[in-house]
Amino acid sequence: MDFARQVKDSVDIVSVVGRYVRLKKAAASRWTGLCPFHQEKTPSFSVNSALNIYKCFGCGVAGDVIKFVQEIERLTFWEALKLLAEQHGIPLPTRSNEADAEAKVRGALYRMHEIAVEMYRNHLRSPQGQVARQYLSRRGLTPDLADTFQLGYSDPSGQMLLRRIEQEGFTHEQMRESSLFREREGGGFYDAFRGRLMFPIHNESGKVIGFGGRALGDEDQPKYLNSRDSMLYNKSHVLYNMHRAKEAIRRNGRAVLVEGYMDVIGVYSAGVQEVVASCGTALVNTQVRSIKRHTDSVVLNFDPDTAGVRATTERIPMLLAEHLRVRIVDLEDGLDPDEYVKKYGADAYQDKVARAVSYFPWLADQARRKFGSSAEGRMEAVKSLLPALQDIPDSAERLAVADELADLVGLTPEERVRTGFRKAAQDRKSAVPHAAAQNQLPAREKILLQALLRSDEAREQVLPRLQESYIAGFRSKTIFEILRRMVETEAVVDFAGLEGRLDNPQKTLLHELVTADELEEGENGVTHLDRALACLAQMEAAQSAGSDNDLKSQIRAAERSGDFARALELMQKLSQRSISRQDRS
To answer: Domains (ranges, CATH) in the chain?
Structure first.
C-alpha cells in the first residue's frame, strides 16, 4: 500500500472536512453543508464517508480527503499529505523529502515562521523586551495570555532574526519569498519588523503564516505593520484567531467580530472565545464566507468612534448578503472591547454580548443621530436605510424589518407612502440562484455501481456475468467497462483509482452516481452483494423477456408465411428457454 492510500484509509474525511464546514447528516454515510469553495445560500456540498470523497453539485469541485486539504489550505499534494499524517499520528515514510520546488519553498517558509515566533517570544521575555511587557501590562494582558497568543517582541536593530535565519542555511530566494525580511537597495536583507509587539497570524490548521506588528512609540509609523501577501499568507482569506475560535463558534452558535488584534485578545480573556478579526484590512467576502462555514450568526463589536460606526454600517450589508443573522454590541463610555473588559470585567462584557441588539434598531438609532427628527431628517434617514433593507434576501423578513425601521425612525403613515419605503422593500427582486437540474439516472445504475465499488464479493461474483448487452443503454457504460478492466488487471479498485482513469464528463457522472442517496451494508439485512445480484437478475430477466418476445414475433411471422416447420422449431426453442429458467430458479 502506498503512503497516500494509507493516509486516506486511516483518516475520517467527515472529521477533516468538519473542521472547515458545518456538516449535517443526510443519509447513512452522506453529509451535506455549504460549499467552502464558492458562495451559496443552500447546501450543495456533499461528503460520502463510505467512499471517502466530497462533491459540490454547485461549483463541481470533487475529490478525496487529500485533495480537500490541498484546496482549502492552498497546499501542494505532498504538503496536504504530510499535514494529514502529522495530525493523525501516521509516521512519515523514510523518504519524506518534498516532491517539488514549490513544496520545498513552502516548507522553508513555515520553518522560518516557527523560528521567528520562537525568537520574538524569547525577546519579549528578555531585558530588551521590557518596553513591550510594560505596554502589555498597561493594556491588562497577563503573561499567561501573552503566551496563549504567542505574542513577542521584534529586535529593534533589525538584525537578530536575519542572523539566525542565515545560520540555519535558508537561501536568499526563500528569504525573499517570506514576509519576514526586506532587501536593501545596495544588497542584503534586514528584518521587516523592528521594535514592534508581534502578533502571529495562523491559518485554520494552526500554522503561523504571517505577523502583525504594533509600534510601541509614537514616532514609529504605521501604527500596525502587517505581513505582505506571500505563498503562505493572503490577508483576504484569513481571520485572526479563527484557528482557536472555530470550535467555540460552533459550540456557541455565533462569531464575535471585532476590529483588531488587541480587541480579540481582550474579548478572549473575558471568556468569549468565539472572537475573530480581519488582519489589519477591511472585511471582504472571502472572510465572511469563512465565518459562514462555522455559524449563521455574527455579533459585531467594532470601536464606538466615527470610524468604527462607519465600519459597522458598511459590514452589515456584506454579512446580510451571506444570509447571516447580525447583531450589534454597543458599548458605553466610548470604550473599545478590550478597554471595556479591563474596566468592567468579563461578566459585564459577556452580558453585553448576550444582550446584543439586532442590526436594524442599531441602524435606525444611528440614522436618527445623524439626520435628526425633523421631517427632512426622517426622509434622509429613510434613504440611508434603504440599501441595508434591500440586502435582506427573504421577502417576508424584509417587509417586517421595513415596518420596524419606519417605526424606529418615526416615519408617519403619509411619509411612508410618499417615500415608497415599504414598496421599495416589497418590490425587491430575489437574486437567489437556482441549482441546475441534474439529469436523472436510473436507480439500477446507481445501486449497482455503489455495490461494485464497495464490495469485493460483488465484484467477484457479478462482474464476470455483467454482459456488454446488459449495460449497453447505461449512460455510465464507460465507467463499468473501466471498472471491469481494473479488476481483470488486478489493479486496486477504489473511487480514486477509478476516477483517475476517466475524462472530465465521465468523472462528473461518476460523482453523480456515487453521491446519490445510498443504502448501507446490512440495512434491512441486505448486503451490497445482495443488491448487485438483484440488479443483475433484473437485467438478465429483461434481456430474457426481450429475447422471448423476439422469438414470439418470429413464430407469428413463420405461421403467416406458411413455414410451419420453422414455426415449430422456434416454438421448441422458446419452450427450452422456459424450462431452463425454471431449472435455474
So the answer is: 3-87 (3.90.580.10), 101-233 (3.90.980.10), 237-355 (3.40.1360.10), 364-426 (no CATH), 443-579 (1.10.860)
